[in-house]
Amino acid sequence: MSLEPRPSTLGTEREAEPAERPGGLLNLALVSLLVGAASGLVGAFFRILLDQADRWRNALVGWAQGESLVGLLLVIAICAAAAAVAAWLVRCYSPHASGSGIPHVEAVLNEELPPAPFILIPVKFVGGVLAIGSGLALGREGPTVQMGASIAHLLGKVLRCSWPDCRVLFAAGAGAGLATAFNAPIAGAVFVLEELTRRFDTRITIATFGASAGAIAVSRVFLGDVPDFSVAPVPYSGFGKVPLHLALGVVAGLLGVAYNRAILGTLAAGARLGRWPMERRAALVGAVVGLLAWFAPGLVGGGDAITQRTLSGPETVSMLTVLFLLRLVLGALSYAVGTPGGLFAPMLVLGCQSGVLVGLLCHEWFPDVALDVTALGVVGMAAFFTAVVRAPVTGIVLVTEMTASFTLLLPMLGACFAAFVTAELLGNKPIYESLLERELRR
Asked: What single DSSP character describes residue 12?
């Protein structure tokens, strides 16, 4: 992809690319800090509300379990209603707010679609809190990325920036949103350069780093400055474990392809149910989530708590296999209903589970080999992300920042290499490329 202007539907918004001027570059850098600060503020409150929604849902389930059948029906009804309202907001007010939003951001940057109206921001915010808070297996990063991009575009318009500058800020705001979602400023910047624009450019790079820095400076005031996941220090890996990390990468590549096909398959199935309103489909999946939450409240929602438990506690092979399959199906169903919510956090759950599962199997088959199962869970997150998104640098940097596991960079590099090659050899497209094609066909 490129940020060079080309014919599009944007009409009068596009202007000629300005000649590079030090003053113009300085103005862009200063505005990028403002964009980042605004995106970080919105993203921080979004995360705080999601955490509060998780607590409310768990408290509701805890209370309702003492009320027998009435409590069960109440949990199912509330989860179904929250998901249905989120879908209704999207359908009635901002269709581009459905799903992750990252494919729409890419389409705007490619000048294949115009920016969405600014009502997307409150719809994405409220709809995301309702959908993820109801227990759907969706990530917070999709909403924060799209809201960050829209906030950047809004500020660019208010400050009368040219369309080329607005476009650069749009990309930078998306990176600021990802940085806020996972407290990972470098990953947010790398994501813009590797996935959204796929090029290094002076103006894009400056704006992206400025926005990520501004977002983290503001968001950490409210969210604190600790990694998202607590992982015990891991020693540097020796050369003898390279085959294991390559094997884990192959497994992650196969599972990532299966995940992509599951997401696209459920989306296609949902399209065939077009006569069903979005709200009805969302309510049905919300009811299923409510039923699951009644029996196992720790298995629903975005999944950060699941990832932390997987990294921290011992699991059996059979139990972990069941949990992996359950989250795989739940994630695909949740994404198919079209409510606001992303794919990153659910991907990290599956990647961590796949890495730990490989480690447990190796313990059973080769009991004399010294393995750190937790380290394999961390490596599995980066490898699975790479297989699904095909953005290995973003995956490695993101997981490293979220776990502070800097000694695992080389194992992650080997596993991501194997995962990338495996997914490519199977002819599977990156998930956001497939979702972008669907976005353009709507």
From this structure: G
pLDDT digits (tens, 9 = 90+) for 392-419: 999 999 999 999 999 999 999 999 999 9
* Residue at which a domain ends, from 189, 223, 257: 223
Cα dist from 27 to 5, 33, 315, whole Å:
21, 10, 53
Query: Do 151 and 103 meet the contact criterion of CB atoms below 8 Å apart?
Result: no
- What residue numbers bound the domain in which 381 lies? 239-434
Average confidence score pLDDT of the chain: 91
Let me know the angle formed at the C-alpha of 283 by 281 and 288, rounded to the nearest 5 degrees.
100
- Which residues are CB-contacts of 362 (< 8 A; sequence separation ≥ 6)? 244, 369, 371
Please check whether residue 440 lies inside any domain of the structure. Answer: no
Output the DSSP codes for 333-369. HHHHT--B-BSHHHHHHHHHHHHHHHHHHHHHH-TTS
End position of a domain, from candidates 199, 223, 247: 223
Place of tokens 């509701």: 60
CA-to-CA distance for 344 and 142, rounded, in angstroms?
8
